[in-house]
Structures are given as C-alpha cells and as structure tokens.
Amino acid sequence: MIRFVIIGHRAHTTADFKLDDIAGGAGRLDVLVRCVNSAFFLSHNIRKDAELYLVLLGGEAAPKTVRISGRELRYLNPDERSTASLIRNALLKKVGDTEVRASPGIYVSRMSFAGLMEELSKTSRFVYLREDGKDVREFGFPENPCFILGDDKDLTEEEEAVMSSYDFDMIKLGPLSLHANHCMILVLNEMDRRA
Ligand SMILES: C[S@@+](CC[C@H](N)C(=O)[O-])C[C@H]1O[C@@H](n2cnc3c(N)ncnc32)[C@H](O)[C@@H]1O
Questions:
Q1: I want to staple 53 with a disulfide (CB 3.0 to 4.6 A). Which of 5, 72, 109, 165 is the partner?
Q2: How far is the centre of ligand 1, averaged over its atoms, from the C-alpha of 125 (Å)?
C-alpha cells in the first residue's frame, strides 16, 4: 500500500463553500483536489494500491481527515469540480468519534495530524517530502511507504515536531520547489519504474 498524507493548512472542514470557489472560499481546497487526481488517476485506470489522507485544518470544525481509498473508490472523475463535490459531501456528514463513510472509498473523521500519524505508524514507514531531503534517486523505497507533504505551505514547526516522534526518511524529488500534486506524480513514477 502506498499512502500519502497532505496537510491542508486552511482547507475548510465545513461544507460552506461554493464549488466554483474552491481556491478561495474553501481555503485552497483546489490544491488538495489536484492531489486526489494525482494519487489515483492513470490513463485508463485507478491506482488501487494508493490511499490518500487529506488533513483539513481550516474553519471551526477543524481538524478533520478525509481518507480516500483507491481499492474502493467509485464516482471519481478527473475534473476538479466533481472531486471537490465528493469532498464537500464528506464534510456534510455528521462525524462522531469514529470514521464515517461518505461515498464508496471516501471516509471522514475528526482525526488530527498527530492522531493520524500515530495510527499510520503501525502499518507504514514515513517518508517526508522536503526540498532539502536526500535525493530520491539515491533512496530505496520502503515497503508500505507513507509520504507526508504540505499543500501550498510547508509543514509548520509544530507539525514537524509531531513527525519527530517517529522514525522517518526525508527525500527531495529534484532541485526545484514543486507543487504538491506534481511531487506525488514524480514519486509514484519513481516507484513504478523500480517495481
Ligand atoms: C508547493 S510546496 C510548499 C511551498 C514551497 N516549499 C515554497 O516555498 O514555495 C508543497 C509541498 O511539496 C513538497 N515539495 C515541493 N517541492 C519538493 C521537492 N523538490 N522535493 C520534495 N518535496 C517537495 C513539500 O512537502 C512541500 O511542503
């Protein structure tokens, strides 16, 4: 299983945004929506071995985590608007202490970044994507990697402090600072080439 955790530092946790304003009113949800596309879409297929966690930290209901499982995923289309709609539907769900299924392959919970890291540490090896990490071309991918990355902002000091409770590798994908979803495509391609 290949996992990604992306932190949406301002992404809304309530469904109070318009689908034609996901870059503004939804707190840069557009960045996360592009990450959904990059995690799952192949030309004529879906990556079933991928799982994506969107940690949403914007608004009064924060934090919330939307989990998207490639194995179960249905109704995902390549356009940003319909993906934003699937996420918005998940945010409409009443969430208590346990994860709730919003649609096939899409779940929502009140999990924080710290709680999520604790949960994922049981099954995954963390790989932090950072511009000053070790070059990916000299890196041996672990089994069950979980890649951690920022949205349009890097991880904060507090989030890095959470990470420091765990063992992790830190890799860079190239010499330039890239968009989060482009990082995902590059890392998946690098893994595909070595499979
Ligand atoms: C758009 S970047 C964040 C802002 C960026 N650091 C800047 O100063 O403009 C989104 C995330 O992608 C990852 N990232 C971007 N470029 C990278 C690279 N060359 N290697 C590894 N990760 C990268 C990091 O996790 C980063 O937090």
A1: 5
A2: 20
Cα–Cα dist 178/163, whole Å = 21
Mean pLDDT computed over every residue of the chain: 97
- The pLDDT of residue 120 is 98
Which residues sit opposite 134 in a β-bridge?
A: 171
Distance from residue 140's CA to the centre of ligand 1 (Å): 20
Neighbours of 43 (CB within 10 A): 4
What is the architecture of the domain spanning 2-189?
3-Layer(aba) Sandwich (3.40)
The best mutation among 154, 159, 186 to test binding of ligand 1, ranked by most ligand atoms within 8 Å of the C-beta, falls on 154
The residue ranges of every structural domain in the chain are 2-189
Is there an atom of ligand 1 within 6 Å of 154 CB? yes
Distance from residue 66's CA to the centre of ligand 1 (Å): 21
Confidence of residue 158 (pLDDT cuts 50, 70, 90): very high
| pLDDT tens-digit map of 55-84 | 999 999 999 999 999 999 999 999 999 999
